[in-house]
Amino acid sequence: MSESDAFRVFDIQRFSIYDGPGIRTTVFLAGCALRCGWCQNPEAFRGEHATVLRPDAVMAEVLKDLDYYTVSGGGLTVSGGEPLLHIAPVQALLTAAKRHGLHTCVQTSGAVSQAHLAAVLDLVDLFQFDLKHMNSARHKQLTGAGTERIHGNARFLRDQGATVQFRMPLLPGINDDAENLERTADFLLGHGAADLRLVPYHRLYVDKYAALDLTPGLPALVPPTAQDLQRATERLAARGLAVAVDG
Length: 247
Prior knowledge:
Blueprint lengths: L6 E10 L7 E6 L21 E3 L1 H8 L3 H7 L2 E5 L7 H13 L3 E6 L5 H7 L5 E5 L5 H8 L4 H12 L4 E7 L7 H13 L4 E6 L5 H6 L14 H13 L3 E4 L2
Parallel strand pairs: 2-4, 4-5, 5-6, 6-7, 7-8, 8-9
Antiparallel strand pairs: 1-2, 1-3
């Protein structure tokens, strides 16, 4: 089996309710160009913890819950890692999903070639697009890459008329300060986006690092308090954004 017709899958999560509308199956693919200090899925860093599968095998698993997608408006979400690194098999998987009438969602960091986004544009009903920090130098410190490609890809998707749901992991003391929230609002409003989903940082993933013999990038980081969430939500809402909080 060649890399061009398969991908490395480290989890297939059924009955997902936070990865797009309705009840969904989320397929997590290994591989990512970023190394975020708070990454919830360190399994994506190293391929030995994943299973090499063809798109048809993955689709067979996804279709087990077809009835739930039908009644809930759900479908398939492809996540990672960064799923759009695996463009040929992801195209094949999304094509199969559309053939079965499924709603499709791709979760992306935006740190990919614009050509890869263009290749799946007509196959994706919803892009969930992460904005982690607006300052490029700080973003590079936190993730290993600046914001130029990411922000360019966000503009590209909006310009192409794609449905994009922007998300931001809320990281106390890192990206929840007034300046970053204001710059985030400026970016979204400047590109015609009216809403933002906040994803509160949590520490449930930390045990994964120990199991994989890895060290978390930000071991002292603590989850946001209810007051932290309220403060961020109110500041963004004051700029006219509709803000939702995951979980």
